[in-house]
Amino acid sequence: MAAVLILSTFATALAVFPGWSPYVRGLVPVLPAGFDAYFVLPWIGFLLAGAAGMMWYSYWVAARSYGGPVFEEEKPEEEKLTVESGFEADKRSWLHSWLTIMGTAAAVGAVGATLVNLSFLTLGAELLGPLRIIPEGMRVAEDIARMLSDVWGPLGAWILIVGIFVALWGSILANQDGWGRMYADATLMLFSTKRGGESKTIRQAGMRLHLKNAYITLVLTAVPVIVFLMLRDPVGILSIGGIISAAHLPFVVALTLYLNLRRLPREFGPGPLWTAAAMAAIFFYAFFSGFYFYSLLFRHR
Question: Are 269 and 260 in contact (CB under 8 A)?
Answer without folding.
Answer: yes
